[in-house]
Amino acid sequence: MHFQYSEWSDRFDHSKPAFDTLWDLFQELLTISGGDVSQALRWLNQIDEEYKITDQFENYGIGDFIDELKERGYIEFDEDQSIMVPTAKTDRSIRKRSLEEIFNQLKKGGHGSHKTVHTGKGLERQPETRAWRQGDDTAHIDSSSTMLNMLKHSSLEQFELKEDDLEVFNTDHYTSASTVLLIDLSHSMILYGEDRITPAKKVAMALSELIMNNYAKDSLDIVAFGNEAWEIEVKDLPYLKVGPYHTNTLQALQRARHILQRKKFSNKQIFMITDGKPSCMYENGRLYKNSFGLDRKIVNKVLDEAVKCRRDQISITTFMIARDPYLQNFVRELTEANSGRAYYSSLNELGGYIFEDYIRNRRKNVK
Question: Where in the chain is the domain with CATH 3.40.50.410?
Fold first, then answer.
């Protein structure tokens, strides 16, 4: 009898069914590969060969997993491209997985609901009460306090309820917010031996899933930027790829501002995830670029745009996933020009910062 020993790892949950174990890993690989099913499956095969994942399952291998992916509608054959591609069902699953992953990373109490510092009509009842006013929802009447008020002027023979006796619970007032999330796809997002784009995509997916499921009145638009900036749909998020791009921060902010100008919400905000300095812009229809140091010609145009956003009451929150001192100086200038905020976060902290800032910003400008 032959035994093979290896270092113990609890990376894989051996209590999970075979498909669920491989499905969880496959979604991660599919996100990293930018939606390339064939590449994700090759990586899955390599991992299985090294870590013997399928050895724990009886009569179930990678081939069975691929068959089940097709049967469950997670991948399908694209006739035009002659390749296997992920389906919309897979897109939704990856977004949901990202949301769960971000929430698991947050400390208990590190995020909250969309409350404001004001009270009024809302969805969540507070313990404090106040006198009833015309138009208040009768479902929020505090029966105990109301009864006590009535008893003060009633007798045992006759109970008389007056309008002044009514008390209602205060409720948290919820605002609506419009957010544009900017994602840097410049080449530096995968340089220096660190994958920065995958965490950025996960945060964007998690935020979109949170808004679509919990805050239907809010809006989230997503803009990717490299040499230029372009809008993308939520379904495209898992499969974004870094390109051989410079960083056109100016056009990204301009596009975000134009999107928000069309929104009716009082709270308008830009979240920008980047790891570098602005290094290009369009000038007279041509791309002007300078990758060396901070080019004041480019930086000053970006700062001008930040001021325009401030005048339109659009706050910019920058999440800088790099700690170079000269980059921090640029972010500091940008933040001052916009009266916004900036975080110099690690990749592990990125999700928590964005979720908490999103909720905090919704408390502002209540009308």
Answer: 177-361
Positive or negative: CA dihedral 129, 131, 133, 139: positive
Looking at residue 226, what DSSP letter applies?
Answer: S
Which residues, 6+ apart, have CB-to-CB distance to 262 below 8 Å?
A: none
Compute, in degrees rounded to 10, the torsion defined by CA atoms 228, 260, 181, 210.
-150
**Hey, which of 91-100, 186-195, 251-260, 319-328 has the most confident mean pLDDT?**
251-260
pLDDT at res. 163: 73
Q: How would residue 170 be classed by pLDDT, with cut points 50, 70 and 90?
A: low
**Cα three-residue angle 90-92-93, rounded to 5 degrees:** 65
Give the closest residue to 318 by CA, choosing from 356, 344, 296, 298.
Answer: 344
Write the pLDDT tens digit of every residue in 240-284: 999 999 999 999 999 999 999 999 877 899 999 998 889 999 999
The residue written with tokens 């209590």 in the block is 15
| Continuous segment of H or E residues that includes residue 19 | helix 18-32
The CA-atom distances, in angstroms, between 216 and each of 208, 266, 357 are 11, 16, 18
Instruction: Tell me the average pLDDT across 60-72.
Output: 96
pLDDT top residue among 134 and 358? 358
Answer for the pair 192, 242: CB distance below 8 angstroms, yes or no.
Answer: no
Q: Are 223 and 230 in contact (CB under 8 A)?
A: yes
Q: What is the CA radius of gyration of the chain?
A: 26
**CATH number for region 177-361:** 3.40.50.410
In this structure, of 198-207, 225-234, 343-352, the range with the lowest mean pLDDT score is 343-352
The C-alpha atoms of residue 186 and residue 175 are separated, in whole angstroms, by 34
